[in-house]
Every structure is written in structure tokens, then in C-alpha cells.
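Here we describe the complex-level prediction in full. Unlike the single-chain runs in Section 2.1, the two entities below were treated as one system.
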Amino acid sequence: MKSEKLFQYFLKSGGILILMMAIGIVATLIMGSIPTFKEFGFKFIFSSNWNPTEGRESYGALPFIIGTILTSVLALIMTFPFAFSIALFLGEYFKEGRMASILKSMIDLLAGIPSVVYGLWGFYTIKPWIVELGLNAQGFGIFTSSLVLAIMIIPYASSLSAEVINMVPANLKEAAYSLGATRFEVVKNVIIPNAGSGIFAGYILAFGRAIGETMAVTMLIGNSNQIPSNLFDLGNTMASLIANQFGEAEGLKYTSLVAMGLLLFIITGILNLAGKMIMKKITA
Amino acid sequence: MNSSNSISKQKLKWRIFNDKLFSIVMMTLAFVSALPLLSILFQLVKKGYKQIRLNFFIEVAPDTMQAMMAKANHEIIPGGIANGIVGTLIIVGLASLIAIPLGLICGIYLSETSKGKMANAVRLVVDMLQGIPSIVLGVIAYIWIVKPVTSGFSALAGSVALSIMMLPSIIRSTEETLKMIPSTLKEAALSLGVPYHRTIFKVLLPTGMSGISTGIILGISRIAGETAPLMLTALGSSAINLDITQPSSAIPLLVWEFYNDPNLIDLIWGASLILLLIIFLLNLGAKAIVKKWKVQY
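The structure predicted for the assembly as a whole is:
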């Protein structure tokens, strides 16, 4: 009997360790960014001046927050038609069979490709293409990175939506069919209203992914510290700024980058929990 | 009468046309999204296969000068990615050593405790951990390990960052697999007088092995290609390094280095190809396990 209690405590200690780890992560980020918030206050979030020159040091996160949101929203918009088609394909039109398994494996492989390889592909394949189309002289920028990001998040956006679409009760669909509805009308009037919130949750999670994505964006966005003036302009995101400048950072610059990490953590954390919350409500 | 009939017929045709059009557009878009995959694979294989010789696996990455000389003489760039392969093995191996036991314990705890404040808090935290961008984990490992413990960039710091990254997938797959096992199995063992911990280790875990190991393999494949957190922690090294308190290279880090050095750029394809092969093999392995060892109840 005693060993049973002991073993339960042992299991519980694993849970406690995870909790402590999470608290530790939050505490570390907050403590690390205190000097920055002491120096700049909320100006850190709303200032657009990122200047590491000694004596005139000033750190503002606004250009990177805007860059992050722009690239991720644009990626989400571009990914939608494709991810939604895949979700319908796997969740409704072809639930089983060879076509479905081929598409499924391809999506799985797409999810497995490392970010840095996507970056390479974007650099050698997408960038020349952007230049050729005359969208941007050098081919770098917000649009280029969004395009690659859009492809990267297809698996995340589509797999959850496919699951939710698959869960739409068959009797609802059959009722519509028996009234003479075409498949398209069933999709429009039964599946989308029923699975809408789940599909939405999937996109929220994919959005969180896009915001935290680092390498591919770093290689394609052009790394300019200005607020981008249009969608084809160069820019920078919070994640790629950290990747680029953390190595040699000290003092205020270092704490400002940690503060950037804290902001990134808060934004992705909220998105992730919101997405999971909606999913839980649906599946419960 | 006649005219209304033709109108409704026209409408029907329109509806059927819409339906057909929609399914064609949908199928096209679905398969178009697979084109980037083919394009990436084609590019890597076409440009990378020449690099892949025995030397590529047993020699360390060349420095810029060597590569420049070879290029000037129109030879193949010497060297390989041995330092990256060894580094990836060490960093990923160590990360697994940290994450697998902790993930298993935590997953068992959650599956055995379906209710309660504490368990729900742990679930919430696991969800949250899953969403943390890898670069932020790099920052965390830098503050936790690089500065105070190894006082410099180290393979250990990289492993810590990656282990936090793979924990959620192990915990989740363990919890979900164990929950699917019928409670009769556990009750049978307990009623025979088998102690609780033996029931878990000898009955539940072996039954759930396929699900759990799939989760672990997918976790490993998720971290094997990570570059960003390693840039802040393991940094990279031009030699093979077995000391975990020293900076270490890794295959994704080498890809990044080659990308930034115009003289080494030719090596990038071989290195990426190997990295992709490793990850695809891990994914295939996970699928094979699901197929082969799936326990039917």
C-alpha cells in the first residue's frame, strides 16, 4: 500500500516539474526584460526606433510587431483556399482511398520539412520568380516571406479543419441530400455552418505557428528595421530579429531582445490557448 | 407552365454546374498545394546528390579558404558534414534523454488523473508549451544554461531547448494512448494482486507502446530540423565535438552556415538532402509502427 502512494507521488512530481518549468519560463522572460521596460516603459511597444548606437540607444518593437502581424496575416489569407480545399478533400469528398492517402502523406511530408530548407527553397525558387514578376527589385520582403509561410502552415491549418469537417454529423448531411441539395450546397449550408468554429480554431493555431516561425522568414524578409510601407517592402519580424541580433547582444539590447521574446511568448500563448479552448468546446 | 418548367430546369443545370465547378476547383487547389513539396524535393535531389559520397559523412565541413581553392581549380568542394551529423546525434540524443522520461511520467500522471485542479493545470501548461515559438525556447536555454552553467555556448544548452520543444508531443501521445486502453485490462491486473506501479510498467505501457513510441519519434523528427534555437545555444563548431559543455555543430546549423558563406554554398544541397532524408525516415518509421504494432482491443 505504501509503495502505491509513493508511486503516485512520483507520477505527480512529473506534473509538478512541468508546472515549475512553465513558471520558470515566464519568470525568466519577465525578469530578463525588466531593464528594458524600466528604461522605455510602454514606449518599447509603441516606438518605431530601433537604434543600437552607443549613447543614443533606443529600442522600440513596433516595426517588428507590425512586420510579424503583416507577414502572418498575409500568409493566413494565402493559405486559406489551399488549406480549406485539402480539408474538404480529406474530411468530406475523399475520406478514404488512394487519392486521400497520397494527399495525406504529401501534407505530412510538407509538415516535416525544416524551416531552414523552406528558407533555401524560397531563396532559390520563389525569390527569382518574384523578381521576374517585377513585384520587388531584389525579391526579398514581406510578400516573399508570407508566400513561403503560407505553404509552411498549410499542414497545420488543413489537418485540424479536416478533422472537424469529418465530425459533422452524417444525418445532417443526409437530410440535406434527401431534400435534393447538391454536394456544393451541402458544403455551403451544412458543413461550413457546423464546422465553422472548428475551422476557425485551426486557423488560429496556424496563425500562432506563423508568428513564431523564424528561419525561413529570416532568410527572405530582408531584415530591415523600418516599418514596412507596403506589402512588397522589406521588413523584419520579432522572431527573426531575435535570431539575427541575439548572438552579439549585451546590456539594453540584450534585455530588449528578451522583452521581444516575452511579447512573442504572450501573443502566441494567447492564440494557442484560444484555439485549444474552441477545439475543446467542440469535441466535448 | 411550360416556361416555369424550363426555368427550373435551367436553375437545376446551373446548380449542377456550380457543384461540378466547385469540386474541380477544390481538387485542383488541394493538389496544387503539394507542388511546393515536389519542387523542394526535386531541387534538393538534383543539386544535392552529387555531394553525397562517403567523404560527405566522415569529413568535417571545409573552411572558406579550402572551398575557394577547390572552386578555383574546378574541383568538387572537399569535406563533408561529419561535425554536423555527430552534433545532431548528440544534441538530439541528449534532448531525448531529458524529455522522454519526464514526458512519460507526466503523460502517465495525466492519464491516471483525469480530474483535479493540478492535472488540469498541467494540461493547460502542456498546451501552452506546445505553442511557444522555438526561438523563444532558444532564449530560455541561453539564459538558463549558456550563461550560468556552461558559461558559453554549448551542446547541452541546445539539448535543453529542444527537449522542452519535444515534451508536449510525448506527454500528449502518452496520455491519449493510455486513455484508450480499456480499463478492464488494468482492473484485471490489479485484481490479480499486481502492484500499481507494476501494472503500469508491465501492462499499460507495453500495451500502449506503439502509440507512445510514435509520439516520441514524431517529437524527435520535429526537433531534428530545428535551427533557430540552436543558433542561440549550440552556436556551431568547425570540428567534431563530443564535449557537451562546448559549442557544437548540427546539420541544420551547417545548412545555415553554408547559406551565409558564398564559397560553401554548393554544400548546402547535400546537407539539406541528408537532413530531409533523416526527418522523412523518422516519419516513415512512426507510420510503420502505427501500422504494424497497433493493438486491437
